[in-house]
Amino acid sequence: MSKPVPILLTVNSSTQISANMQRIQLSGDELERYPTHCAGGYIKLLFNHNGGTDLTGYSPENRPVMRTYTIRSFDSAALTMDVDFVRHECNDDKSGFAAKWAMNAKPGDTIHVGGPGTIKSHNLEADWFMMVADMTALPALSAKVKELPSDAKGYAVIKVIDEADIVEIEAPEGLEVLWITGNDSLSDKVKSLTWLEGEVSVWSASEFDDMRALRQYFRNDKNVDRDNIYISSYWKQGVTEDGHKVIKQEDAIEKESRA
Prior knowledge:
Number of strands: 11
Shape: globular
Order of helices and strands: EEEEEHEEHEEHEHEH
Low-confidence stretches: none
Largest sheet: 6 strands, antiparallel, barrel
Radius of gyration: 18 Å
Helix content: 10-25%
Structural class: alpha/beta
Number of helices: 5
Distance between the termini: 30 Å
Strand content: 25-35%
């Protein structure tokens, strides 16, 4: 099956929702083709090689630069979706295209968007849940938490840049939401928690090195069934998304060779 053709969307609003997070609301009639329950899935934002959104002259043979982001929320009636961006100072290389665009976007601006894609959900029949995210994965975790049953129990461990980035998460009462900041280790915090009884469902997305440490912990130390784990890296410290993609491919090959 061929991939959906990217659509052109318009910026409705741009709002700084915390010290280091910017929310962009996008709209467009072509969002009619998106599934109603696509929040938590991913989209591809398309840029030219100068970081702009004018794709004149690009083609399948001369592809634009793509950056992957999560659909934070989706309104199928209003045909709008919210996308959250970590705010940070950007230089002129490709690593900062999306963040720079988001920090400067204003109503009426347009951008081409590919997708949507889906990511693995949890085993909602599990006895308890372990959910882990850093700030890049906070939008996806926030959407996935809403899928949990009302009597769900377990942990949601979230690392943000600053205490001012802590936001309210709509979570079941039995899910303990734990925030860490700054130089605190995400993987160390997860490992320090009491491991609950029964079958666990793990959902974890973070920086590459944290992902590797947590994958070792869940699969090898705690023997969590592979079918009950979604674990992914959303970025790698010091490299662009394109470089991160190569590292992920190499990691998958190495992992397969050890299986």
